[in-house]
Amino acid sequence: MAEHSQTQASAQHIPRDAHNISRKNISANALRVLYRLREAGFQAHLVGGAVRDLLIGVIPKDFDVATDATPEEVKALFRNCRLIGRRFRLAHVMFGREIIEVATFRAAGGSDENGDRQIDEDGRLLRDNIYGSIEEDALRRDFSANALYYAIEDFSVRDYCGGFADVQNRVLRLIGEPKARYREDPVRMLRAVRLAAKLGFSIEPETARPIPALAPLLAEAAPARLFEETLKLFLSGHACASFEGLEAHGLLPVLLPETAAALAANRSGALRRMLMAGLAATDARVARDESVSPAFLFALLLWPAYAHALMKLQSRSVHLAEAQRRAADQVTLHQTRIIALPRRFSLPMQEIWLMQPRFAQRKRVGRTLAHPRFRAAFDFLQLRRHASDEHEADIAFWRGEQSAAAVQQWLPEPVELPDEIAAEEARHAAETLEKPKKPRYRRRGMRKIKQ
Question: Out of 3.30.465.10, 3.30.460.10, 3.30.43.10, 3.60.15.10, which CATH number does the structure's domain 12-169 have?
Answer without folding.
Answer: 3.30.460.10
